[in-house]
Amino acid sequence: MNNLNVKQLTILGFGLSALTILSVYFFQYVMGYQPCELCYAQRNPYYIALPILLLALIFWSKLSKIMITTLVSAMMLIFLWSTYQAGYHAGVEWGFWPGPNTCSGMGDGISLEQLNDIDGSRVVPCDRASVRFFGLSFAGMNAIVSLLIAAIFGLATYKSVKKIA
């Protein structure tokens, strides 16, 4: 990965991000896994990053070196935030710390069964992993992928800054 240039790293980060969000939709809409409140929150960094990256790649030749450095630095920060969100959610699932009251399946004075009966909707608790692959929940996998994407953009930032200096 060290021999890739800033644009190639950006393409790699974009591709991995797009693949991640597409796999999320696959597991939700094809495989039937329903996301919880924290799962939906973990999608926001991708929703922010993907359109910006797409536009940046389309207009890459028109961007200055400073703009490119700012872009890849911002993407690194966005995916570090994504890593934190996913790590927080994974910690809630493992019981390392409590999740939000609105997400545990047990609000104040109302049971999970009562919530599940409201208009036929189903509450998906954030403190239980719906599935684990090799010991990792979806949140745990997202933490690893987000950290990898952040590292890709960190390397792109390093190379971009080095080019300017």
UniProtKB/TrEMBL annotation:
Main location: membrane
Listed InterPro entries: DiS_bond_form_DsbB/BdbC (IPR003752), DsbB-like_sf (IPR023380), Uncharacterised_DsbB (IPR024199)
Keywords: Membrane, Transmembrane, Transmembrane helix
Membrane topology: Multi-pass membrane protein
UniProt key word Transmembrane helix: yes
Subcellular compartments: Membrane
Transmembrane helix in keyword set: yes
Transmembrane segments: 12-32, 44-60, 67-84, 133-158
Pfam families, A to Z: DsbB
Signal peptide location: none
Protein name: Disulfide bond formation protein B
